[in-house]
Specification:
Order of helices and strands: HH
Structural class: mainly alpha
Number of helices: 2
Shape: elongated
Strand content: under 5%
Oligomer: single chain
Number of strands: 0
Distance between the termini: 36 Å
């Protein structure tokens, strides 16, 4: 199941072994989705004195749903 490794005393490996965390495809998009949805739960920003509209042109929920659909298309789900 696991490869057998022998470590000889006093011998240093020729190449240093580096392990990288394997991130499955779509994990980064899911993190972005999670952040966008957490922002969607926040209170809406109040309009300032100089502007009558809020600072966001698109809601975080709209951005999250668009990115979720795009990620699903990229992964071949939809």
């Amino acid at each position: 199941m696991f490869p057998i490794r022998t470590n000889y005393a006093g011998v240093t490996p020729a190449a240093s072994e580096k392990t990288m965390l394997h991130v499955p495809t779509g994990a980064f998009e899911m993190q972005l989705l999670h952040e966008a949805l957490s922002r969607a739960r926040m209170r809406r920003p109040q309009a300032g004195r100089t502007t009558t509209s809020t600072e966001a042109t698109r809601s975080a929920r709209t951005v999250a749903m668009t990115s979720r659909n795009q990620s699903a298309r990229d992964l071949g789900v939809l």
